[in-house]
From TrEMBL:
<dbReference type="InterPro" id="IPR005050">
    <property type="entry name" value="Enod93"/>
</dbReference>
<protein>
    <recommendedName>
        <fullName>Early nodulin-93</fullName>
    </recommendedName>
</protein>
<feature type="region of interest" description="Disordered">
    <location>
        <begin position="54"/>
        <end position="73"/>
    </location>
</feature>
<dbReference type="Pfam" id="PF03386">
    <property type="entry name" value="ENOD93"/>
</dbReference>
<feature type="transmembrane region" description="Helical">
    <location>
        <begin position="12"/>
        <end position="30"/>
    </location>
</feature>
<keyword id="KW-0472">Membrane</keyword>
<keyword id="KW-0812">Transmembrane</keyword>
<keyword id="KW-1133">Transmembrane helix</keyword>
Amino acid sequence: MLPWAKANLNPTGQALIVCTVAGMAYFVAADKAILSLARRHSYESAPDHLKDTSFHGGAAAAARPRPPAFFRP
């Protein structure tokens, strides 16, 4: 606790400062963890078979009529 806060603030104000700092530290740590996971599992580092997101269909897809051109990707 800061000496100024200890001398000039009541216990509620001191607790508010401590909780705010603890919450900020928690947010920074969580943000770092989320960003590191996002970098580790990014699209660029994925294998090629997972990067291909196009739909290839199959026998059942050939039997259905094709949608109009403005619906096709």
